[in-house]
Design goal:
This protein is mostly beta strands. It has one domain (about 1-20, about 30-234): Porin (Beta Barrel), CATH 2.40.160. Helices cover about 10% and strands about 65% of the residues. It has 1 helix and 13 strands; from the N terminus they run H-E-E-E-E-E-E-E-E-E-E-E-E-E. The chain has one helix at about 1-20; strands at about 30-45, 55-65, 70-80, 85-90, 95, 100, 105-130, 135-155, 160-165, 170-185, 190-200, 205-210, 215-234. Strands 1-2-3-7-8-10-11-13 form an 8-stranded antiparallel β-barrel. Strands 5-6 form a two-stranded antiparallel sheet. Strand 8 (about 135-155) and strand 9 form a beta hairpin. The longest helix is centred in the N-terminal third of the chain and has 21 residues, at about 1-20. The chain starts with a helix and ends with a strand.
Length: about 230
């Protein structure tokens, strides 16, 4: 909660500051860029915390337009890599909200991926003209899709593992979520720059139910993505 409030305060303050400084200096400056990010996202207790990956690398490509030195709009697309985990569960363990029946250990293959487009308002303030450093804040919306699956791949009885490929159980959900962030930018030349960023997304809205007649529910928690990338302005 403290991290989320800090990002809200920082983003709002930077955008408000940009509006004050912009005045009559309007002028369009388009830019494009890409980030490599590391997403951290926890899951609800017994609703995926013991199954799905909590960390994933992802890519983010974006296009923006600066209306002035201090204010702009940015849109893009982010997608995490498909993460696969093999999980061994005992009878009675709760998997996606449902206790595991039977008397044998079971192995499951779990996959997870988060992806979707986003758009944000971006405000910037200069930290150092000499070193070409800027601090930016953003407030926006991401339309994220959570693509999860659970598949039984075998069971263990008396210490002997027997393959048992089961039917994959999909969990899919798309939701518009709040997106907040802050970034530190450094211009290497007049057109090329690099930036590091921290993005918070309201992914606890991604509560997905099992499809195709299966039972179960997966509940994501809010997530952070830390990234490093480069951009070019025109």
């Amino acid at each position: 909660m403290k991290k989320r409030l800090a990002l809200i305060t920082t983003s709002a303050a930077l955008i408000a500051s940009s509006a004050v400084h912009a005045e009559n200096q309007w002028g369009l400056t388009p830019y494009v860029g890409a980030d490599i990010q590391s997403r951290h996202m926890n899951w609800g207790k017994n609703l995926g915390d013991n199954l799905f990956a909590h960390h994933a690398m992802q890519g983010n490509i974006y296009f923006g337009v600066k209306f002035s030195e201090y204010f702009g709009v940015e849109g893009g697309y982010e997608s995490s890599a498909k993460k696969t985990r093999t999980v061994t569960a005992s009878p009675g363990d709760v998997l996606t909200g449902t206790p595991l029946p039977g008397a044998s250990l079971n192995q499951f293959s779990m996959t997870s991926r988060i992806s979707g487009p986003h758009i944000s308002a971006v405000g910037s303030v200069s930290l150092s003209d000499l070193h070409r450093l800027k601090l930016s804040g953003l407030v926006g919306i991401a339309s994220l899709k959570s693509s999860l699956s659970r598949q039984k791949i075998g069971s263990t009885t008396f210490g002997v593992f027997a393959p048992f490929p089961g039917t994959p159980v999909p969990f899919v959900k798309r939701k518009n979520v709040l997106r907040l962030g802050a970034a530190l930018e450094h211009m290497l030349t007049d057109t090329w720059g690099v930036r590091g960023s921290v993005i918070w997304e309201n992914t606890n809205k991604l509560k997905s139910y099992a499809q195709n007649g299966f039972s179960g529910v997966a509940q994501a928690k809010n997530s952070f993505a830390c990234g490093l990338g480069a951009f070019i302005s025109f």
